[in-house]
Amino acid sequence: MTAAARFFCADAALERGDTLAGTAPYGTVWVLIEYRGGWPSNGFDGLDLAPEIKGLVFGAAQKVRARILLIRRHGRLLPGDGPRRWAVLRHGADGAGRQVWGTWSRDQDLTGVVPALDAPGEPGHPPVVLVCAHGLHDVCCAVRGRPVGRALSERWPHLVWECTHVGGDRFAANVVVLPDGVYYGGLAADSAVPTVEEHLADRVHADHLRGYTDLFPPQQAAVAAVLRSAGPAGRHAYTVESTVRDDDLWRIRLTGRPPRAAAFDVEVRARRTPPYRLTCHGTAPSSARTYEVTSLRAL
């Protein structure tokens, strides 16, 4: 009798045709901490740091709803290969991206994150491209993420980092561009490079787009639908003008910058999927919330 085939959540999601659009977690501030050793399954929380330092950084991040991610270069530099880096990245309400970077060699050095979270940060830094490769959190993140991390690192060695869990294991490989706050999913080595290349040229495509992190899920789905209909556009080519909710139905108006159409009216309906096994480690089936575009009209 043969053993049952191993379950991979990303394979199952592809077979089901799970919807990507509308699945990016909300957020506008991120803390990145370079850690070259093995990552605990719970990321920053599991690091062997001085408890008072860890508590200080976590508390400051929590106050501004910042997400803390561990990062490392693909191929893992050894612990002694120069100082490790930390960063605070922020996506402003005006769409501008700002960053603060520092280095650390002792736990105490990470306290620099705290004032950086209160500072506006500096514009003009190159974007940061993160690839989730957190295998202890979910197997698919390593199996699918590391080949993507390798391909992107070979193309943009100074922009790309592997990172801990970003959410949406079943959409591996996941790539996040910061501080733009753009999530892409379902990527492979051959699709990741052109996707990121287009993004860096300020042309966001609907294919592989999970969403913009400063928007809520139905708004993310509306933007993806407009990009699919009207073609790729810049990260800030469309603005959410209004959002009206009626139970599980959202009516969203997007306004475009010239030469785009003046506006689009998009209707999005939320639905629950049947229960599925959504992660590699989770054994109990769970239902996911999806956002289906039921109407799109250019004005």
Name the strands of the widest sheet in spatial order: 4-3-1-2-6-5-7-8-9
Give the helix level as a range of percent. Answer: 10-25%
Q: How many strands in all?
A: 13
Shape: globular
What's the rounded overall pLDDT mean?
93
Biggest β-sheet, characterized? 9 strands, mixed
- Residue ranges: pLDDT <50 for 5 or more in a row? none
SS class: alpha+beta
Give Rg in angstroms: 19 Å
State the end-to-end CA separation.
62 Å
Q: Report the order of strands and helices.
A: HEHEEEHEHEEEHEHEEEE
Counting H and I runs of at least 4 residues, what is the number of helices?
6
Report the sheet-strand fraction: 25-35%
Describe this structure as you would to a colleague:
Helix 4 links the parallel strand 5 (128-132) and strand 6. The chain has a domain at 29-183. With 299 residues, it is of the alpha+beta class. It is built from six helices and 13 strands. The model has no long low-confidence stretch (mean pLDDT 93). 23% of the residues lie in helices and 28% in strands. Helix 4 crosses helix 5. The strands form two sheets. Strands 4-3-1-2-6-5-7-8-9 form a nine-stranded mixed beta sheet. Strands 10-11-12-13 form a four-stranded antiparallel beta sheet, with helices on one face. The termini are far apart.
Task: Give me the secondary-structure topology.
Elements: H1 9-16, E1 29-34, H2 51-63, E2 67-72, E3 84-91, E4 97-104, H3 113-118, E5 128-132, H4 139-155, E6 160-163, E7 175-178, E8 182-184, H5 189-200, E9 209-212, H6 217-230, E10 238-246, E11 249-256, E12 263-272, E13 289-298
Parallel strand pairs: 1-2, 5-6
Antiparallel strand pairs: 1-3, 2-6, 3-4, 5-7, 7-8, 8-9, 10-11, 11-12, 12-13
Helix pairs in contact: 4-5
